[in-house]
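User: Predict the complex.
Assistant: Input components as received:
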Amino acid sequence: MADKKDITPETKEVQAQKSVDEAARPAMKKIDSKIPEGPLAEKWTNYKSHQKLVNPANKRRLDIIVVGTGLAGGSAAATLGELGFNVLNFCIQDSPRRAHSIAAQGGINAAKNYQNDGDSVYRLFYDTIKGGDYRAREANVYRLAEVSNSIIDQCVAQGVPFAREYGGLLDNRSFGGAQVSRTFYAKGQTGQQLLLGAYSALSRQVKKGTVKLFPRHEMLDLVIIDGRARGIIARNLVTGKIERYAAHAVVIATGGYGNTFFLSTNAMGSNGSAAFQCYKKGAYFANPAFAQIHPTCIPVHGEFQSKLTLMSESLRNDGRIWVPKKKEDAEAIRAGKLRPTDIKEEDRDYYLERRYPAFGNLVPRDVASRAAKERCDAGYGVGSTGLAVYLDFSSAIERLGEDVVRARYGNLFQMYEKIVDENPYKTPMMIYPAIHYTMGGIWVDYELSTSIPGLFAIGEANFSDHGANRLGASALMQGLADGYFVLPYTIQNYLSDQITVPRFSTDLPEFVQAEKDVNARIAKLMAIKGNRSVDSIHKELGLIMWEFVGMGRTKEGLETALEKIKAVKKEFWSNVRIPGEADTLNVELEKALRLADFIEIGYLMALDALNRNESCGGHFREEFQTPDGEALRQDDKYMYVSCWEYQGEDKAPVMYKEPLDYEYIKVQQRNYKQ
Amino acid sequence: MEKTINITLRIWRQRGPKEKGAFKEYALSNISVDSSFLEMLDILNEQLINKGEEPVVFDHDCREGICGMCSLYINGHPHGPDEDITTCQLHMRKFNDGDVITVEPWRSAGFPVIRDLMVDRGAFDKIIQAGGYISVNTGGVPDANAIPIPKANADEAMDAASCIGCGACVAACKNGSAMLFVSAKVSQFALLPQGRVEAARRAKAMLAKMDELGFGNCTNTGACEAECPKNVSISNIARLNREFIKAKLKD
């Protein structure tokens, strides 16, 4: 039985350190992942049957803060409101409808088996564990697969206009990592439609008065009273005022930290600060090194690029990826003296087909990304910056005709043309990998509770279900599973013994102190009055992250990154310039507060990557690869979740291990060669 | 070789909702035509910060045309001169060397200016809260394939649901009407069997809220449809009117 998976300290020294820290912070008890008893398929049912609930009259007396309004936060706030709790819902955008979940294109997975192609809850569970390279918890992932079907039912009932067949029933498409068609979609705007569904449900609760919205508010600290999460400090982004909010429980749904890299497919405002504040208050940060790099994005065009746009992975079905064989050709292209169509067939290096004859252009995301980087680093990159490769449709057009290609990919070609101003029917597309998603995040147990009682984390903000690599169309599934169907149950198990706890006053000393700390932090930033903009320093951090903590990592590179990030931190805290005042709208101050945390997160990512002496999923340590360049896991040493605990400013964090046991799945080496 | 242009920006600067605003001119040189409009504003802001001045405030987030956060009234057009895109997808190659580009916030009674080019679109949230939903709780719903829906209706509902809530329709309308926005949501649900149950109530409630919040009436100029970055069709307004009349007849 895999019950009660204790997090065990790594060494005796660590243990000694831990006991010292525990003495200093009594809230930091040794914790477990709380996997329920029973066979895998019955765990969630058993849990729900035996968990404690809160009766309707008591729900009204309990306040819950939800930070974030994306698929996870929006669906959780709406559902908790429907149940009768008093919900306070915060977001940094001007409306909850704009959370970055809205940008997801492809679709959402569910084990409906509407196509009669052999899908099942077990198969979705299995594909997800395997796709994550055996670094996710069995019980959590099984539950995710189990509730996936309810999500589709719920969204249809809300009026989400999923694609349909002529018979009126729902259509499905295929996605990577699966042999079945289980992906539901709404044109290329699935994330938008699912988010608007959650936003509608949320809006209904706002009208009913169960949810109060706080748009343009950013959480800057977590307030802890007697070891429990009891509120937040937030900055009103319009007035600049620092505000205090109290509740019986706090839910973090603020997404991932991909913008540590400056350039990513994340929205400009996406940030890791709320999660990082929780870490600083004692919540474990799990697997920070696990980040997903997507191979097909529109490349960087110059120094002032602000973000990267994803082009759907489906393009690799018919596109062939290449760079010039000769360095002088690549140089001439970069200088604008040659065009890709000038390069003869025999002078093109279709490097994926050359290196991976079995899978060719359809190798997995991480392999395709690393191979593109390798060619560009070696001097064969194209585009004005040299950081791009070609995705060429000329043979597909020759084989199928332009009309067929247009029918399959027309909307993507149009989007590409708007951004790059080149016609991809005539000239090959240019693409390059970009940071897209972070599998790591705040550590949570089976109940989605962090290591701080009363603090929960859902969606991309937690670390839970994707292991070392997330499959396409599974982010939307996890966000809505957490928000609609998991947290609204599990949070009651915590709140049931809180019913006699009266509402908190925000005049309590803990709130006063937290606000003081936030104000001191802001005052310190404003007082620097240096010479560099926030963005210029963020770009510097991003380049370090991309070079040393990106697609290919080495021990030496990661050690260099740690040193360089320390230097960036010093530069930031001594030379950043924030114009204007703190007590009013100040976008540069918002960015500076986020960057201060990105620097720390970047450091933690490098530290975790350095610790993990293996390659798995999106984490590729160049020292650990098979002769064919595939990720080589070290299951005997690293089959665990690394859980980092903050020890104080400028002190090394301590790492604990949550071992992963696979009872129902046979652990294997992933193979893409046959 | 990278092509660059020199431009002059006339940007509306306004400290706060109650304060008087004015245009201010900024000259920018060597702007890559491959940069997006918002990246060009990033360059301007970087220069302003380096000079110790306060940067221009504008809303933006996803920068791939889907979140609806960016706005800007550029040379007399919401989201600028290019078609079927938001400001974040507008690129500088649509402008010429020596151009003077006028940049204003959305101007409408329903969207008060917060600062510079940033406006308060909270009214759109209030309109949705008035009835822009189907009243179902989480759980206890039928199987997703229990009710077949004709593909044509589902596709049309999807087209209406493409609205990103940016407010360009209001900014484009001489009456400051939010009819295209309201009608898109009313249509999406009216076209689906799940949404028919509350169709009449929804149309009345959302229109009443729109009027209450100070948006103008629709006089069928079609400016909203022409400027909509997502091609939301004006035929949705006709459907909203039908739903509204049906609801009134039942009263």
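The two ends of chain B are 68 Å apart (CA to CA).
Let me know if you want any component modeled separately.
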